[in-house]
């Protein structure tokens, strides 16, 4: 009887030791954990955080530019690009909260991943357009000749041409401060939107290259191939 009791107590102890060896000593599990993370963060946590921070920065800067002059066009104040990127980051956070299923067996998981990929591509296009508009406006402002007339700043590309286009900035008492502030904001918009576009491009590249199999979302998942291999060995 004593030998039977001792064998029963030894069995769970042996099982615990085997589990510890598999989790701690097996290098494959460590490699899997590293492959499922990016800079120590689970995908898409790092990219979603970057998109949220950059999107808020672009949006705030766009509204600040709109407050300088009421005559600025929407394309010159690209807060719309920042709002799109913020929405993309929220979809990334939603994807992180969904538990992972192998081979995308759930419709919710597939839909959210597809939305994140498509919206990231849309954010990429919006940021590239914002960079193009800001660069075009900045190049024009470097050639402007401005005068203050009735609390508005009137600028021309060519003062010698009487039929040349005149750009009017309303609610601007000082043309010097207006042009300097706009040049600074346009440069910041170009840099921020360019970085945001690169982040969105990285998201699309990672999701397209790995086909949603290398990075996981939600709870830790062990592949079915590994369990099938272990069963065959047993």
UniProtKB/TrEMBL annotation:
Query: Which stretches of sequence are listed as region Disordered?
Result: 1-35
Keyword annotations for this protein?
A: Membrane, Transmembrane, Transmembrane helix
Q: Which positions, given as ranges, span the membrane? A: 45-68, 80-102, 114-135, 186-208
Q: How does it sit in the membrane?
A: Multi-pass membrane protein
Q: What is its main location?
A: membrane
Compartment(s) where it occurs, according to its Swiss-Prot or TrEMBL record: Membrane
Give the signal peptide, or none: none
Q: What is this protein called?
A: SSPN protein
InterPro entries assigned: CD20-like (IPR007237), Sarcospan (IPR030429)
Q: Where is the composition biased (Basic and acidic residues)?
A: 23-35
Q: Which segments show compositional bias classed as Polar residues?
A: 1-10
GO annotations of cellular component type: dystrophin-associated glycoprotein complex; sarcolemma
